[in-house]
């Protein structure tokens, strides 16, 4: 990878520990709103439902508003907890408001960014909501490391749409040959990059996906030192 000059990272599940921070946010919101149910039982059903809704959102099958309401409604229904639509809307708003209060990053995040920052230009490409992603990065002290931050909302489409990657390259004054994408989603990050001719490194942190010859796979961020 001697020609690489630009390193593009995904944010959630790649640098920013979404699951841990999300769980803590729900704990705060549930306590504030006096939601009388077992939090762990809720989270157990919410996590896959959230992933399902994000896939629908990525595929333009639900709106941002439908995602924020629908994932909560389906999760509460799954645990047979009766809750009003008004309270669901309140929880949805407070969840987004408080999410950036928690700043857990994956192990090795600052070490690898410090290692990379003097060798490459670092950028973010994220499908997350624009107003939330900047707050996350600021509160977790990630902002200073990155030159360009590209959100899908600013492009109008979401990864793996090629428009997102082409827009990101243009903003960063980069090209496919001197750039690499690092992320946790095979479909959105890895195949999205590969489909436009950009190499990619897959963050297989749970070590639950078989490796492939079409991309490099790592199980921890510090493994990037072997390649970059």
TrEMBL record:
GO terms for molecular function: 5'-nucleotidase activity. Gene3D superfamilies: HAD superfamily/HAD-like, Putative phosphatase, domain 2. InterPro entries: HAD-like_sf, HAD-SF_hydro_IA, HAD-SF_hydro_IA_YjjG/PynA, HAD_2, HAD_sf, PGP-like_dom2, Pyrimidine_5'-ntase_YjjG. NCBIfam families: HAD-SF-IA-v1, YjjG_YfnB. This is Haloacid dehalogenase. It comes from Polaribacter vadi.
